[in-house]
């Protein structure tokens, strides 16, 4: 499942439901959120959709069925403005005209049991989606088990293409990738790992990034090929030598 916490309120979004619907519009912690999930990139993100310039109507996000670099493209149902789903930047329509880049909050990939331990008061999207629908445990049927099914461009060979990384943008604009498996292994003996003012700690059975002041920095997991495609100059965290 994908866990999101905003201002002390937490909610879990089951992965199998997100694989079917691909985007959710929700209210959490007093904020409106748009949460797209690109199955091709293994990337669930949570965008604040109520922090906008004056004059813009709150967007209702939908998936378009189009792709860019194997990432699904989303759009606003009200204005038909198109967004780069991976970066939150508007690329057409009224939102582009005002230079909108949607702010992100963190998404934690975790088991339900571990998320529930971390956030005992968490809510979760109903098993039937609240609409009486039955969702298979694995709607994709292992579709991506043998690698990306569409071209992904030039491959950054520092990591395997489908290795999961937690991607974060540092305060100075530097993109940083934290390989999830390596970080979790390191966190078995230390409380956190740090790089460029970003601190990563365990949360649920996943990881979450914070700024030097302890604030959420809007990190999310993705396959390495996707993070490195959209952030070609990314820095990669590695465990300390020895």
Task: Characterise this structure.
It is a single chain. This protein is an alpha+beta fold. The protein has a domain at 2-105: Rieske Iron-sulfur Protein (3-layer Sandwich), CATH 2.102.10. It has five helices and 19 strands. The protein has helices spanning 15-21, 93-97, 112-118, 180-186, 224-230; strands spanning 2-6, 9-13, 23-28, 31-38, 43-44, 46-48, 61-68, 71-76, 82-83, 104-105, 108-109, 123-124, 164-169, 175-179, 193-195, 198-203, 206-210, 220-223, 235-236. Strands 3, 4, 5, 6 and 10 form a five-stranded antiparallel sheet that branches. A hairpin with a 2-residue loop joins strand 7 (61-68) and strand 8. The protein starts with a strand and ends in a 6-residue tail after the last strand. The mean pLDDT is 93.
Layout of secondary structure:
Layout: E1 2-6, E2 9-13, H1 15-21, E3 23-28, E4 31-38, E5 43-44, E6 46-48, E7 61-68, E8 71-76, E9 82-83, H2 93-97, E10 104-105, E11 108-109, H3 112-118, E12 123-124, E13 164-169, E14 175-179, H4 180-186, E15 193-195, E16 198-203, E17 206-210, E18 220-223, H5 224-230, E19 235-236
Parallel strand pairs: 2-12, 14-19
Antiparallel strand pairs: 1-2, 1-11, 3-4, 4-5, 4-6, 6-10, 7-8, 8-9, 13-14, 13-18, 15-16, 16-17
Quick gist of this model?
The chain has five helices and 19 strands. By secondary structure, it is an alpha+beta fold.
CATH structural class of the domain at 2-105? Mainly Beta
The amount of helix comes to: 10-25%
Assembly state of the chains shown: single chain
Structural class: alpha+beta
Helix count from the secondary structure assignment: 5
Q: What is the CA-based Rg, rounded?
A: 17 Å
**Tell me, what's the shape?**
globular
CATH topology-level name of the domain at 2-105: Rieske Iron-sulfur Protein
In percent, how much strand structure appears in the residues? Answer: 25-35%
Order of helices and strands: EEHEEEEEEEHEEHEEEHEEEEHE
Total strand segments:
19
Please name the CATH architecture of the domain at 2-105.
3-layer Sandwich
Q: State the separation between the terminal residues, measured CA to CA.
A: 34 Å
Outline the low-pLDDT stretches: none
Reported for the largest beta sheet, the result is:
5 strands, antiparallel
Q: Compute the average pLDDT.
A: 93
